[in-house]
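Standup, Tuesday
Yesterday: got the pipeline producing structure tokens again.
Today: sanity-check two examples.
Blockers: none.

Example 1:
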Amino acid sequence: MSHVWKPVWVVLAIVGIILGLRFIIVPPDFGIWDRGYMYGWHRHSAELFWKDQFKVKYKGRDYCNNCHPDKVSSILASSHKNIQCEDCHGPAIDHPDNPPKLAIIKDRGLCLRCHAYLPYPTSLRSKIAGWPNPDEHNPGIACVNCHNPHSPDFSKPDLNKEVLKVKDITERYDGN
């Protein structure tokens, strides 16, 4: 019967060594959060170290709302409410000091990330307004020249007025 117990003791010794090394090597605040291992496998205390080393590149919608409450409220009332401001306007790392105005990304590819057809039945893209072939829908023209991303809901009558002449919308988005 001793030939059966030897492998068991070897396995128990290996498990004990691994647990002992983990206790010695892994910091006590590794992965410990109020709600468990929620947002990653890193040391909670290391966040302060990294915050001092690097600036936060993306500030979030609350930061934008301090100076632009009208724009934020129009987005929150629209079907674009899940899109953060910096997805279209770029990172606000030092804004408004440097740069005083954020560049507006007008590339069609930005809109196509959500509005292009995706042939997967579970993607739910068919429920998002778009077009079947973007190459046929005003090719070469930025979407914001005709569509106001702050008020994209064409089903609401008061927002249909947002689709104005190309020149008017371009001037509005070049302005801020």
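Example 2:
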Amino acid sequence: MSVNYDFAHRELRELALEDPRTMLGMLSDPAGLAAMARVWNKISELGGSASGVTSRDFVPAVRALPDGTQVGIVGLPKAAAMCEALMVAVVMGPSPRYFTLEVTMRGPELDRRGNVLCEWRREEKGYGHANHGAEVMPEDAEGFLKAIAALLPG
């Protein structure tokens, strides 16, 4: 797997679902974004390469759903291959939720790059991955937030 995949589908997923307040705080703190870059670069180093991302390679946003629930979104660097994450989001609440916007291929010939909205959930034995199937347009934080809001009750 790629650095992007490991970072989004393992490291950030665990942080978002186990300590969502810390993740949300990291998005509005330059030191938090620098810590994300250090984790990314360590994953890269352990995999035998050097990616050299910096805090400027992450695009943070903290938004609110219509009911006031906070959502932390971060755009990730170097998403190009299928299943790599363009963005991730943690939805705050009593049971936090973690969404990914992943690269996929679309079209009858699977020849067009697209995206797919997915979610990681805590399960009895670890985590489960759900593919919500929807393509998010526009492919930005606001489009991602709108697609997530459509999946939530209320």
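Quick observation on example 2: The CA atoms of residues 118 and 131 lie 4 Å apart. The chain has four helices and six strands.
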